[in-house]
Fold each of these.
Amino acid sequence: MNIVVSIKQIPNLTDELEINAEGTGLDHDALQYVLNEFDEHAIEEAVLAKEATGGTVTVIGVDTTGELDGALHTALAKGADSAVKITGDFPRGTDSHTQAKLIADAIRGMSPDIVLTGVQAADDRDGQIGPMIAAHLGVPYVGVVTGVQVKEGKAVVHKEYAGGVMAEFEVALPMVVGVQAAHQPPRYAPVSKIRQIAKTAKIDEVTGGAGPRAGSTVRRMFKPESAGHAEMWEGSPEEVADKIATLLAEKGLVKRG
Amino acid sequence: MLALTERTIFVLMVAVFGSITLWGFFNMYRIVRRGRAASKFQNLIPQAVKAFLEVGLQTPVYKSRLILTTFHAFIFFGFSYYLLVNLNDLLEGFLPGYSTAEVSTGIIGPLNFLGDVLSIGVLLGVVVFLVRRFIAKDKRLEFNKDVLLYPAVEKGGVKRDSLVVGGFILLHVGSRFTGQALRLAERSIINPMQPFASALSFALRALPPSAFTSAIHASWWIAIGLIVVFLPYFIISKHVHIIAAPVNLGLAKQGERGHLDPAVPPGAPPDLAPGAATLADLAWPRLMDAYACIMCNRCQDVCPAHNSLRPLSPSALEINKRYWLNENFTGFAGGAASPPLTEFAISPEAVWACTTCFACVRVCPVGNEPMADIVDIRRRMVNDGAELDSGIQSTLEKIGKTGNSFGQAARNRAKWAATLDFKIKDARKEAMEFLWFVGDYASFDARVQEITRTVARVLKSAGVDFGILYDGERNSGNDVRRVGEEGLFEQLAEQNIAAMSKCNFQRVITTDPHTLNALKNEYPDYGGKWDTIHYTRLLAQLIDEGQIKLAKKLDYRVTFHDPCYLGRYNKGFNPPRALIQATGCEFVEMPRNKENSYCCGAGGGQIWMGTTPPGERPAENRIREALAALATLNGHGGNGAKPDKPLLFVVACPKDVVMYTDAVKTTGNEGKIEVKDVIQLIAEAMGEELQTSNSQLQNAVPA
Ligand code: SF4
Ligand code: SF4
């Protein structure tokens, strides 16, 4: 079983997001990049599938940050067998069309039985990478998947619909799966193992060509503008109660005695 | 003297039972040798002298349970003296005409007196112990409901062993004592130097004269023959502590308490997995622990996890290890593997309940370190990718990604300082005397930041030349190491040391006792050798030198909680107390203070756990203890009378502020007692002397 996982890095959302000077996107250079959380689930599901049926897991991503190695080492520490990074002039925040094309080109020659990827990523929220890889490769795609079982030439995937309805698909391999959640929480990769791997493991490098570019551009990116504002009142319960009473009286809702 | 056949039988018995015993000790040695290498023991002779004195004076036993320990001391002194007594008995058995029962003069006189009195001491002591276990059924000898027990332990192995040992001592000493009385009764004399035996001899005079010889012989056999028969049992009994415990004390942990041994012994082959999965993965002194353990449960008494009804018992861990070894004695000695420790010694849930408070290690009378096993088991679980508590896992991931347990961007680390009306020096750019290592909680937790600012203001007002690392600081890794993530700890230590090495400063101060511990005790191994102190020590010094002037006398009644990593680990007992006293507050100690302080329950990664188990949490227990202590002070009725001054629970650890503020709420004691950091008392007492301000907060005061 030849399992491939496509990953990408996105800005760390616990960080305060900054908008660039043009107001057309994030100020990528000011942000810290981490692995897309859904991709972490894709890696876990891939390793679980390998543990269940045997085979190899290859993790691949476009290096848009110069720091993809860290994520690849972590994946290797979690049980992936090999790692590939696509290099080239791909800046942070490279659009999903480009990334999907680069990955599809890189993995075509690997003849994967199944490709797993996060169903979406918080940076562009378009959930396109999986379907586009499938389109480029000409294989079926199922998204929002919460569990994959592979059996001779077929995969049984569980998909979650809104309202708590589940569906089970049987799909002929090869296929692409957009993972919503692995059927077990992603495992922890001990740092000593990651560091060990960083010293010894080899990451294959593939030079990526030009991507198709996204068909759309972001015209304006901005933080939500608040319509009003909240005022916090501090003080003892009596004081606050008094302020409330005054306010209500001011607005003419009650009369102050 | 014994008859020839008796002497022959005795010699044969010594040969047979003695050989079995030697074989047993040899296997015990092989068992202990199966453990991994331990860190080097240095100064063996001074250590041996220290252990000898400790055993001789029973000081490690006197760390808790004073009354029972006194009875133990009776038994200990009696038994030690009995080495001499038994030698004398052997001579009586083998030398024709040699008898000392009636001698009251010369050197033998006082020796007889000691033997007589100590025999009664031993008998009394053993009776007390047996009564306490079997009649009074002391609850402390029991385990919590869900504690994992090895089947032999579950079936009451410890009880049976205690009964055998107690019975042996009663028979051995009782019989020897009776033998003395018989000898006196036979000749109808009394020996003033054997007052108790003489008293018994009156009663024994009633025996028919023909019975004396055989009765004396019987008493000899029950006293001395019994030892020989008992010797092989000794190996599998907890009584072997009389040999293992002194050895263990001699080999007790050296160096700082807060320095954990590395996850793999130095010089080990590179593929050796870190930490411990099975018995043979433990360092050999940890196998010795199982033999030294006297199964007293003193460690359990002080364990915060046990007291909040969690399934952790440090004593059960040692006892399980021992009973497994008893049942697999030659097999393990010969190289067989043990099952995973988490299957027979300690449950995974218990492994994750430990706060690494060190109380069990501190209190153990025989120098055992159950906590070291627990950390090693965690290390292996983390290494093997075992399923971790979700809170712990996500915190480790956050620390790995962002360098702090809050998962915040590094550049937010010093945000707390932005509202001060002065700029704290940036250690990466300027030289300074004190580098202040602020720590995660003090930096990021909204409930603690105001306290952190107060520390800065006090230092500034006192003219201390200090600075911080700003975004250059990372989690110190103290608790990361204690949840078993050795690699992440090393990475953090290296990163912090690299950042600090580029700065120009003389000493380090910390607000968080956990960071204090890592920097002071563990960073030196990684090349970070600085003089690191807790800020309470610096402040106490500044007050002494008059650099901080306390303008106001405070009128609170306060108690102080020693944080584990400041107090028990790093002996920082006095500075916080000196600070409190300097403010003029009325100070009350809680019953559990200093060395015996009770953990708040946050350490060892517990504060990161995703779930709060049911039951009284350690911090809640502590708040109740504080209220009781504060209420029993003179001039203040304990029965709900309104206190004449506000009560404070004073802490010196940012995590404590969080833990106890919460516990005051959950115990429904809001308004009755308030949690404050020492620094807040100092700031209040400084009054006008505190020159700096927190500008933004002042602006924020509603108009
Ligand atoms: S480990 Fe120490 S304190 Fe605990 S039961 Fe054994 S001897 Fe007692
Ligand atoms: S270190 Fe503290 S919490 Fe852990 S076992 Fe010992 S006493 Fe219990």
Amino acid sequence: MLSKDIEKAKSIIMNYDGPPIKIMEVCGTHTHEIFKLGIRNILPNNINLISGPGCPVCVTPTEFIDEAIYLALEKNITICTFGDLIRVPGTSSSLGDARSKGANIQMVYSPLDSVEYAINHPEQQVVFLSVGFETTTPASCIAVRNAKNIELKNFSILGANKTMYQAYLALKDAADAYIYPGHVCTMTGMSELYKLRDEENVSGAVTGFSASEILSSLAYIISETQKNKPFVANLYPRVVTEEGLIKAKTLVENTMESCDSIWRGLGIIEKSGMKLKKEYIDYDARAKYDIPKIVGKPNKGCKCGEVLRGDIKPFECPLFSKGCTPEHPIGACMVSNEGACSAYYKYGENLWKKN
Amino acid sequence: MEEKLVTLAHGAGGKQTAELIDSIFKSNFKSKNLTADDAAILNPPIGKMAFTTDGFIVSPFKFPGGNIGKLSICGTVNDLSCMGAKPMYLTVAFVIEEGFPLKDLEEIAQAMAKTADEAGVEIVAGDTKVAGKGQVDGVFITTTGVGQIMEGVDLSGAKAKDGDAIITTGDIGRHGCAILLSRDSYGLTADVKSDCAPLWNTIKSVLDTTKDIHVIRDATRGGVGTVLYEIAEQSQVGIHLDYAAIPVDDAVKGVCGMLGLDPLYLACEGTMVIFAPNDKAQAIVKTLNKGKYSKKAAIIGHVTNDMIAHVVVKTEIGTETLLPAPSGELLPRIC
Ligand code: SF4
């Protein structure tokens, strides 16, 4: 038996027969859950659900991987990283390839693990690959502060932390409404989203990750869109508050400052990144090791950029499942579980369409 | 008292080897066919026979619900059972790491004897080698088995047909989950015991109910999901599962939820998947529900002629989605 909420939401979605609506799910976890729940298979033709740039591994640019490989191979530095990044292709190879050439690449679950690793291996220089959005940035800040407190000399971070607000702005014409990422909004609170609605006419709903939360938010967006007035709603109020997590925000503000940042597929977005403040510069790997400027060249055939902007569906990329698979990824979107290409591949979206 | 350990001398073939074999293996494996000669002399099975072998390197060697000894017997007994063969004879070969405690070896041998006894199979030959410290991890066991195929039974992974019902003989994913927890690298605790069990009697009860069965497969490495993909491919059919009907222990569900794993991809060592014509399915489940190791047996899905070579699941919200194909990132050394 399905709950009433789910039945109601399903019927609103399945019976929608108004003008076409384009909805972007920003967050990679949503992309994955939507597939897992088979929601795409009940969407009517006039609802187009596109996947956005909210998978940290996917938007990390090629040159970032190149920088990490440079540190690992040229400077003999131990790289600590989240597992997914190991398989992301750089210009000519991945960190996994570097490992087979003798580089020391350690997989960690949190930036704090890499501080721990540095403490236990004083003979090595350790760099943590600090990627991610508002959700993971505070942990990197804590790692750096802890390292500074104990004057740890063999630890630093290679930063590629990003903030979502500027990405929403860059993508504001990509869709009619957005399913906002519940986890990021837990940190940031609602004010940015009100601003987007009031100043930029961007609409959306903050959504959790359960079946009923995702379905209800889709139903809500469909109903609201028909009113032709920008809207924003917090449909995840048990977790997301108006003001967000103030402590975490203050921590980040006191440790990092905004900078321009390169997004795979979106290019440089002004003030969309975070880097360590001057007082923590000793923990910034770019300053510490004088990394030369690297211009990354993603594989020419890879359409990750278009996928991340919602311009094409993954299976419209000529390499999708022909040459590019989760086992042998050519682009970043095929690597992470949260990447759009990997989700479309695993859940056989192209297969359903043909049937 | 000082702990007694296996030494290289135990493997040298001399007096100490004989002592080890007598004190640990012979005293436990009490078969009249197990002699000091170089090979066992046996009566061959009547009719068709099944023949199989399997190596076991599970780490840790002891886990809730069993140990590598019990596992090594169940594995081969179950492989034979899947083909409708009554297990008759087994051989066992050990590679033991120097320094392995004798009392652990004794515990392993006891578990093997007990499990073989339960499955009605005789251990008729064996071999023991000792490898230097670090050359193996603890103990590795290989078992080889011969069984007699029941008359009128014809099973194969290529025989699944449109309209077949799919049954699991029990709740799924418990072995994989128990091993994962006993490695404690995740810092999780939960009360999960491996389902490791010899299933010949279970399978016999099913074949006594009806011989009209198309596929029986052991859902070991890779779990039920992997096995279903194999069968879908081998038989060129589509498989549709009803997620809500799949029996999963609550503790396993909890662990999977926390680690983002799907119980469909966790190994079982005492659960099989059965494909049979739909009109036989209820009777099979009814028989299974009376069995010692198959109380939770249930129909979990059916076979169709669409979505060939794929496994589709009905989700909690009543939609259909593809079960992502096995990714190859399985837990190492679970069996
Ligand atoms: S399918 Fe592969 S190559 Fe194509 S866009 Fe996706 S990741 Fe890039």
